[in-house]
Amino acid sequence: MTGTSPSDFAKRLDKTADDTEALLGRLLSDDILHDEIARPKRLMDAMRYSSLNGGKRLRPFLVVESAAVFGVPREAALLVGAALECIHCYSLIHDDLPAMDNSDLRRGRPTLHKKTDDATAILAGDGLLTLAFDIVTRDEIHRDANVRLLLTRALARCAGIGGMVGGQILDLAGEGRFGGNEPIDVARIQQMKTGALLRYGCIAGAILGEASQKEYQALDDYGRALGEAFQIADDLLDVEGDAAALGKPAGADAALGKTTFVTQLGIEGAKQRVRDLLARADSAVSIFGDRAAVLQAAARFVAERKN
């Protein structure tokens, strides 16, 4: 990697987080849009509680930086990133519910259902999910309606039955929630539950930039490698991490009896797998030359993060 120092990378990540925060604040305001009837205060407060004032905003950052490879206007990429972040935040609300992971803390604060109640949390998640598709279809993202269609379809498929939602039910099945002894494919679960949204952050830039098939494939390969590295790093943090730094209890996977990359590969095997994935991610975007420096730094950030 050349051209991006750790401090430069941190500044870029923080800048995108700040810009995303400001944009989400506007998107989640109390101002009623055309065709809306009302924005109920309890619902909006709950959506803001779970979406604002927290998180590294890695997924919007991937959209912004993958789009920057093609010179896409930052404002357009930020809107797509905000839509993706709405999906991510909704998924966290629902994951934390008693029927799912039953978590009390998220980002160092009470989870939404603990702060309010289960019904409000469910509806806040539903609100963020549907808002995401309102945002990603907006005219200001791209002049070409077909580009907006491709962005929307890809988001639905990465977030839906063949992506995050499907991965969540496979993960629950792996915990034995539904009886039986279904085989556990940790890599497949990861690709769907966690990796799909991270991958979208990368291919969204290619779609926005109207990339060639070769360029799209490079970002797709990068996104898949980065997504798997992210999950393995997460599994390692659950074993080795500090609860205060994580903002949630450590050891949650073991408590739920989950099969993870660490339980399958061991700690050292998992760390070696991360190194291999970093090399794969680095190689995938090498076709972009120095324009890929920030993306290469992002892969290292994912692998080395402490929370």
Descriptive account of the structure:
The protein has 307 residues and is an all-alpha fold. It has one domain: Orthogonal Bundle (Farnesyl Diphosphate Synthase), CATH 1.10.600. The chain contains 15 helices and 2 strands. The protein has a two-stranded antiparallel sheet. A hairpin with a 2-residue loop joins strand 1 and strand 2. The longest helix is centred in the C-terminal third of the chain and has 28 residues. The radius of gyration is 19 Å and the shape is globular. The model has no long low-confidence stretch (mean pLDDT 92). Pfam families: polyprenyl_synt. GO terms for molecular function: metal ion binding; prenyltransferase activity. One of its GO terms (cellular component) is cytoplasm.
